[in-house]
Amino acid sequence: MMQRLWCLLSVLMLLLMPPAFAENAPNADDVQGRLDAIVSEMAYVRFCKRTTCRYKDIEVNLISTNDPDIPYKATIDAIMDRPSTMVDKAHYMLEFQDDRWHLIGGEELSDVSSFVFAGDEYEVFSSYSGRTRISHLSNADSTLRVGYRDLYYLIMNEGEERV
């Protein structure tokens, strides 16, 4: 009788145990490795017809947080090597949530335009027209040659890490 009671109590404890005890926090080395894999794919992206239009000097910053839902955040900064009178720059923000990296937003600055991205939405200010345009990447035609678009659709799956 005592063995049955002990067995029953053990099963109940396992069933009622909070899931936080069963789940492990993601390992920082694994998370960094997955982020590095995204960055290494960025090195192959070409965002204009010239073969030299690519990311270079890519820097990654991994930040651990106290938020159990988003244990890590990251930033990616890079120079965008393309024909320009000044150095074009990119800055992207990612969050690690639900065991995947998510592209949250970013910005790209060049001598003729500045883009701000939030998920699928983008805002562009053009120095040629002096106007601002707001739209979604899904509505943009193929002439929108920004690195964020390739990162969002080609490297990631609509901003979510491919695993």
List the helices and strands and how they pair.
Blueprint: H1 2-16, H2 19-22, H3 28-42, E1 54-64, E2 72-81, E3 88-97, E4 100-109, E5 113-118, E6 121-126, E7 132-136, H4 147-155
How would you describe this protein?
- This protein has 163 residues and is an alpha+beta fold.
- It has one domain.
- Helices cover 26% and strands 36% of the residues.
- The protein has helices at 2-16, 19-22, 28-42, 147-155; strands at 54-64, 72-81, 88-97, 100-109, 113-118, 121-126, 132-136.
- It has a 7-stranded antiparallel beta sheet, covered by helices on one side.
- The longest helix has 15 residues, at 2-16.
- The model is unreliable at 5-9 (pLDDT under 50).
Class per helix and strand makeup: alpha+beta
Shape: globular
Q: What distance separates the N and C termini?
A: 49 Å
In what order do the strands lie side by side in the largest sheet? 1-2-3-4-5-6-7
Q: Give the tally of β-strands.
A: 7
How many structural domains can be distinguished in the coordinates? 1
Mean of pLDDT:
84
Percentage of β-strand residues: 35-45%
Order of H and E elements:
HHHEEEEEEEH
- Rounded to an integer in angstroms, the radius of gyration calculated over CA atoms is 22 Å
Number of helices: 4
| Poorly predicted runs of 5 or more residues | 5-9
